[in-house]
Amino acid sequence: MFSRYLMRALALAVGLYCIALIFQSALVLHFDTSPNLGSHIEQLGLGLLAGAIFAVSCPWLTARRPALTTLIAASVFAGLQALLLQDDASLSKLAEGWLGFLAGLRMISAVLKSWSALYERHLESYGGEAHGVRHRSDRRPNMRDWNAGQYLKFEDERTRPAIDLLARVPLTDPKRCIDLGCGPGNSTELLARRYPNAEIIGLDSSDAMLEKARQRLPHLAFEKGDISAWAPSAPFDLIFANAALQWVPEHAALLPRLVAALNPGGCLAVQVPDNFNEPSHVLMRDVAARGPWAQRLGGAVTAREKIGSFGDYYARLKGAGCSVGLWRTTYVHCLDDADAIVEWVKGTGLRPFLDPLDEAEQATFLALYRSEIAHAYPTQFDGKVLLPFPRLFLVARRS
Ligand SMILES: C[S@@+](CC[C@H](N)C(=O)[O-])C[C@H]1O[C@@H](n2cnc3c(N)ncnc32)[C@H](O)[C@@H]1O
After folding, report:
1. Residue 376 CB burial class (10 angstroms; 0-12, 13-18, ≥19)
2. What kind of architecture, by CATH, is found in domain 148-398?
3. Region 239-254: what's the mean pLDDT?
4. For residues 167 and 161, what is the distance between their CA atoms, to the nearest angstrom?
5. Residue 82 C-alpha to ligand 1 middle, in angstroms?
6. Which atom of ligand 1 is nearest to 271's Cα?
7. What is the model's pTM?
8. Which of 144, 151, 206, 212 to mutate to test ligand 1, by most ligand atoms within 8 A of the CB atom?
9. pLDDT, tens digit, for every residue of 260-290?
10. Residue/partner pairs of 51-55 with CB below 8 Å, 24 or more apart
11. CB under 6 Å to ligand 1: residues?
12. Nearest CA to ligand 1 atom 1
């Protein structure tokens, strides 16, 4: 927060200073008086150039601690200038170089950020994240609780992958099962139907979802808890997590810990949406990066975990002593229109983008997003739209 205000104040100072310089140069051109205007502009220009070069060449540095890195880099630049100018170094020249550097770095960073997809890829190659994006442990945007009603608008479509996942679980008579991220109980109900004699528990961090789940399945136990910190007192035969782990930081690293909570012969069954690069999700990031909310929505981009590769999941589960089955399916959902796609993602992926905005901003965001979606998902001959939705599945059995 402090750094954002500091940066704004500095940007304003640089802007005012530039206006003053332009005004001064207009006077000089008119009256032909100031002897050293050239060198003033030179220092500012040099600073701008150095800042711009720094922003392009060291995004991994500027992405990590933007305010601190910018201030340190600009001060180093001013120090170098002082060395080069030696006797000719005056405080005003050094300040001009320093301010120029800040302005150059911030301007180029802003341009890079507006090309967010490109920038993310650029940063990813350094293992970093975009300006304004919080870091792994601390990057969740302010998210409100889940809206169970919104989520259940597409209950049949959302439950289909859970049915397919459960169909691949080879257990016939498990004694203890848990549904991690059970949501409103739709996936838990599948477990209860298939294993009527088992003890079945649902775990979720959302009060709203738990309330719905308890109403739906009053005879089952539902617990509030965070999957990241989950440490059961007794092992399970089945750990089921449908469409939940993508919300858990570093979920791939969590897998061996989940396997350790299984009895020998027990199963871990997981499904995660693999739609980060689908238009529905690319477009929400684009709209977020283009609007006046870009800064505030920086964290939304990474609120959901990136899905790992087959090789990554395989190695972690094999290393934990499991036999492993992995597959990816693209469901093609036939929806009424583009609005239905927006309604769908409002219940899940769009939440981190909408929650930090006020009502008016949400309406503007949704209008922009809707028009992009309408272009990306053309209407079929019968007026419907098709939403391809890839999902990744894994079933691991502990030996
Ligand atoms: C998309 S819903 C999935 C609901 C259900 N399992 C299904 O198959 O439709 C994701 C659920 O995971 C829960 N969740 C997300 N992060 C969680 C965490 N760290 N700990 C516990 N639950 C979490 C959310 O509250 C939400 O209810």
Report:
1. middle
2. 3-Layer(aba) Sandwich (3.40)
3. 95
4. 10
5. 57
6. 8
7. 0.68
8. 206
9. 999 999 999 999 999 999 999 999 999 999 8
10. 51/77, 51/100, 51/101, 51/102, 51/103, 51/104, 51/105, 51/106, 51/107, 51/108, 52/104, 52/105, 52/107, 52/108, 53/104, 54/101, 54/104, 54/105, 55/104, 55/105, 55/106, 55/108, 55/109, 55/112
11. 146, 158, 162, 181-183, 186-187, 204-206, 209, 226-228, 242-244, 247-248, 348
12. 243
CA of 243 to the centre of ligand 1 (A): 7
DSSP-derived secondary structure for 165-227: HHHT---SS-SEEEEET-TTTHHHHHHHHH-TTSEEEEEES-HHHHHHHHHH-TTSEEEE--G
CA of 282 to the centre of ligand 1 (A): 22
Residue closest via CA to ligand 1's atom 20 equals: 226
Atom 27 of ligand 1, nearest CA residue: 183
Residue pair 157/333 in contact by the 8 Å Cβ criterion: yes
Q: How many residues does the chain have?
A: 399
Q: What phi and psi values does residue 204 have, to the nearest 5 degrees?
A: -155, 155
User: 211 CA distance to ligand 1 centroid (A)?
Assistant: 13
Reduced to 3 states (helix: H, G, I; strand: E, B; else coil), residue 237 is strand
Q: Parse the chain into domains and list their residue ranges.
A: 2-134, 148-398
**Six token digits for residue 375:** 């272009």
241 or 12, which is more confident? 241
**What's residue 214's pLDDT?**
98
Cα–ligand 1 centroid distance for 376 (angstroms): 28
